Amino acid sequence: xxxxxxxxxxxxxxxxxxxxxxxxxxxxxxxxxxxxxxxxxxxxxxxxxxxxxxxxxxxxxxxxxxxxxxxxxxxxxxxxxxxxxxxxxxxxxxxxxxxxxxxxxxxxxxxxxxxxxxxxxxxxxxxxxxxxxxxxxxxxxxxxxxxxxxxxxxxxxxxxxxxxxxxxxxxxxxxxxxxxxxxxxxxxxxxxxxxxxxxxxxxxxxxxxxxxxxxxxxxxxxxxxxxxxxxxxxxxxxxxxxxxxxxxxxxxxxxxxxxxxxxxxxxxxxxxxxxxxxxxxxxxxxxxxxxxxxxxxxxxxxxxxxxxxxxxxxxxxxxxxxxxxxxxx
Length: 329
Fold this sequence. Notes:
The chain folds into 2 domains: about 15-125 and about 260-325, Periplasmic binding protein-like II (D-Maltodextrin-Binding Protein, domain 2, 3-Layer(aba) Sandwich); about 125-260, D-Maltodextrin-Binding Protein, domain 2 (3-Layer(aba) Sandwich). The protein contains 11 helices and 15 strands. It has helices at about 55-60, 60-70, 85-90, 105-110, 160-170, 195-200, 215, 220-230, 230-235, 275-285, 310-320; strands spanning about 15, 45-50, 75-80, 100, 115-120, 125, 130-135, 150, 185-190, 205-210, 250-255, 260, 260-265, 300-305, 325. The strands form 4 sheets. The protein has a 6-stranded mixed β-sheet with strand order 3-2-4-13-5-14, with helices on both faces. Strand 8 (about 150), helix 5 (about 160-170) and strand 9 (about 185-190) form a beta-alpha-beta unit. The longest helix is centred in the middle third of the chain and has 13 residues, at about 160-170. This is PhnD/SsuA/transferrin family substrate-binding protein. It comes from Natrinema longum.
């Protein structure tokens, strides 16, 4: 399991603006749709985090929109962000009122956005990061990944990159200046959770994938979780469906429990209706689609009240990697 040390004496680095996936290039107005006038008390925009490339996230989130609009006199517009960083940029530039974000944004955006609540997936307010390989890869433990190619999530993804980097580091691999730079002992390829898993399965040059458990737990036989992580067995919403996918993957590592992603609200959103919107989100009980819906269901069942303090484990991950997010928060 990942050991999240809180070593605040370490030299800290800051993610720099760049043309890479973490940089703010492409976050100008053209990246997000026109959100309309933010002065209107009945029109609000929610920015959505692009965690999985194969999901129509606007359709996926429609039950939450329908619930908010049924409880409060507002019209909710959904925008898919171009990157993890773009969710915070939309909040920072006052172009969105609400944000579906990665857990890292609760730390990175603490000066521009408030945590409305922590999302719960069928009773579980915590989730896990997995590192997997192909069963015939010859990779038996994390240290075997030295000199190999690892397919990872986006550079700001907690379960797809940040936590796995600490797991690899604690296994003795030199992670260098990753994730804003290159690791020394292995090559990291960044994309999203779905793509990372697909690259592992389809590209023989990729030795392992680092993803959220929601992406690859179904590929791992239950007995491997039973042997490796009691926390996963007891806490993970993904354990029930473990081993049900056709393509089997071998489990190399499971993280400690992580707080699930928050829904955040822009701190300077000063409108009386904000309280009603937040209350509606926290009171939502049925976020399922109609029976004729054929797309991906919303991955969380409800939202419980939360705060930035819930994401202190993520701060410890950033501290261990020596990272700050001043340039995007």
